[in-house]
Amino acid sequence: MVKARKVAIDISLVRNLPLFRDMQPEALTRLMARAGAHRVAQGETVFEQGAQATAFYLLLHGRLKVTQVTPDGQQVMMRVVHPGDLFGFARALARPDYPGTARAAVDSIVAGWPMSDWDTVVESNPRLAINALQTIGQRLDEAHTRLREMSTQEVERRVAHAVLRLAEKAGRIEGGGTRIDFPITRQDIAEMTGTTLHTVSRLLSGWEARGLVEGGRQKLTVIDAGALARIADPAG
Amino acid sequence: MVKARKVAIDISLVRNLPLFRDMQPEALTRLMARAGAHRVAQGETVFEQGAQATAFYLLLHGRLKVTQVTPDGQQVMMRVVHPGDLFGFARALARPDYPGTARAAVDSIVAGWPMSDWDTVVESNPRLAINALQTIGQRLDEAHTRLREMSTQEVERRVAHAVLRLAEKAGRIEGGGTRIDFPITRQDIAEMTGTTLHTVSRLLSGWEARGLVEGGRQKLTVIDAGALARIADPAG
DNA sequence: CCGCTTCTTTGCGTTCGCTCAACGAGCCGG
DNA sequence: CCGGCTCGTTGAGCGAACGCAAAGAAGCGG
């Protein structure tokens, strides 16, 4: 990651984020003034699993993949960070280190604060505390959703759900469908759904033959979201 | 659940909880004064999935199981609530309803606050906000751990992990082992690990034959935690 | 333009864990 | 004390998904 540069971050970029809702404009200005802007080139990391947590971040532009590696070397993708998301606030979880690795899927820009700012920032911005609580709460909700899926659904449904979520969170209209707007491999999707790239490849091939999606090297376009949704949720 | 009774809750019961660490004693006293104490008999619920979230709670005594039911009727156990745990703070997650059902595994006592207190309580107790953030953070960490396990480990390892966690969180020394201190069925364990009661039963039978655990109707005692840990983590 | 690397596809055999089924055992209420 | 309910055990068969293997694309760098 490129060294921090104290750049004035345009408040208008962030004032509408849920995280900063109902905050005093002056407080927000003060907060952003303490942040450093960093550029992260595709493939580079913002922080790595196990490293001491020295800063927390807000993604301003781009897309990150956060992965964890198990003791026996298997990789799991915990989440995709989208613009406007807070990430790497390990200290808020009372952890001394980062639990995962954040790697830029495309060239990205992040705002970073020294971790030591966290407590004072939260204590002097009670509104931010409540919003941060909601943000983590939503994260928890997502994790529970994935747990529920992993516990009860077969692989095809899980992959369908994952693809639909990606299309919703990171979709860009393109021709006849919704293209996932950053490079993503079958391996990535496998790591998000707890399966193997082989199974994902087979499923996507099958769907492509039926005209539900269009694949390609590191890319994926959803053509028939309705049909996918029916695979993800046969009942509703 | 028995109707709330405004009972003075002994501060000494809660002052040492991580959630209330570094809080002013007066603030804590004020906070607890607003709480109502409820008794919940075994098998009764504190709240049910989908019900409007009108209150948030702290478990003072006993043990709760929090489950979610999927649209197609499958049940998943999201967590066990232990004494000292905050639960049911759906509003903090910006949710209008409870995402799961909290049912008493044994006769329990909970402290409850009207949900409308949440924002004011957090805003006037910044220290509590930080602690609550950490509490949810740990919850998120646990969820991620389970996701990692579900993604990469076979059933036997997952069940071993779950049993060890239960023994640690809710174990009581008894004779030659550590007895899990509340009634738990094979079905429960299956719902915690994403498998079926049949598989759990087979595994526990196998372990019992090897002298690692002792089973029984709604009970489970860990005899050889070391051997179980080796099943859970063959490497380390 | 060529060679290498990374990503993807596809076939085949295997297996883990599920489903179905039946029975056994503990506990409670009448 | 007996009947019924819930919980637990165990067997047999099956199938979804994995592991292994090999060969094709697509992109990148020299």
Explain this structure to me?
2 copies of one chain form a homodimer. In chain A, helix 2 crosses helix 3 (126-152), helix 4 crosses helix 5 and helix 5 packs across helix 6. The model of chain A has no long low-confidence stretch (mean pLDDT 92). Chain A starts with 24 loop residues before the first helix and ends with a helix. Chain A has helices spanning 25-33, 117-124, 126-152, 155-170, 186-193, 197-209, 225-232, and strands spanning 36-40, 45-47, 55-69, 75-81, 86-87, 101-114, 171-174, 177-180, 213-216, 219-222. Chain A is globular. The first copy, chain A, has 7 helices and 10 strands. Chain A is 38% helix and 26% strand. In chain A, a hairpin with a 2-residue loop joins strand 9 and strand 10. Chain A has 2 domains: 11-149, Jelly Rolls (Sandwich); 154-232, Winged helix-like DNA-binding domain superfamily/Winged helix DNA-binding domain (Arc Repressor Mutant, subunit A, Orthogonal Bundle), CATH 1.10.10. The relative contact order of chain A is 0.12. In chain A, the strands form 2 sheets. In chain A, strands 1, 2, 3, 4, 5 and 6 form a 6-stranded antiparallel β-sheet that branches. A 4-stranded antiparallel β-sheet of chain A has the order 7-8-10-9. By secondary structure, chain A is of the alpha+beta class. Chain A binds chain B through residues 68, 70-72, 74, 76, 78, 92-95, 99, 119, 122-124, 126-127, 129-130, 132-134, 136-141, 143-144, 146-148, 150-152, 191, 194, 233, 235-236, and chain B through 68, 70-72, 74, 76, 78, 92-95, 99, 119, 122-124, 126-127, 129-130, 132-134, 136-141, 143-144, 146-148, 150-152, 191, 194, 233, 235-236. Chain A binds a DNA duplex (30 and 30 nucleotides) through helix 6.
